[in-house]
Amino acid sequence: MAKKSSIEKNKHRQELVAKFAAKRAALKVVTKDQSASMEDRFRAQLALAELPRNGSKVRLRNRCEVTGRPRAYYRKLKMSRIALRDLGNNGQIPGIVKSSW
């Protein structure tokens, strides 16, 4: 099990990303627009720098929803390999059967 503080920090980042996504996207469009004036692009860049850093999507970390483990994460199932194995062995994930021969 991961530290509670790490899990909560990532949840807080997810909330910030959702909150500032539209504003960040609009500012990025202005900064990349070559037809806009240099001053407008510079102002948009400064406004983008004023936004919280944790509001950037790059700062998010994929974590297992069962244990909070950050590594060996399966995106499709949103869990780590260890949690997948435990739940699969117990028969709690439909369609996953432990192989035996």
From TrEMBL:
Domain of life: Bacteria
Role played: Binds 16S rRNA, required for the assembly of 30S particles and may also be responsible for determining the conformation of the 16S rRNA at the A site.
UniProt keyword Transferase present: no
Pfam families: Ribosomal_S14
UniProtKB keywords: Ribonucleoprotein, Ribosomal protein, RNA-binding, rRNA-binding
Family: Belongs to the universal ribosomal protein uS14 family.
Cellular component aspect of the GO annotation: cytoplasm; small ribosomal subunit
Ribonucleoprotein listed as a keyword: yes
Assembly description: Part of the 30S ribosomal subunit. Contacts proteins S3 and S10.
GO biological process assignments: translation
Designated name of the protein: Small ribosomal subunit protein uS14
GO terms assigned for molecular function: rRNA binding; structural constituent of ribosome
Organism: Aureimonas glaciei
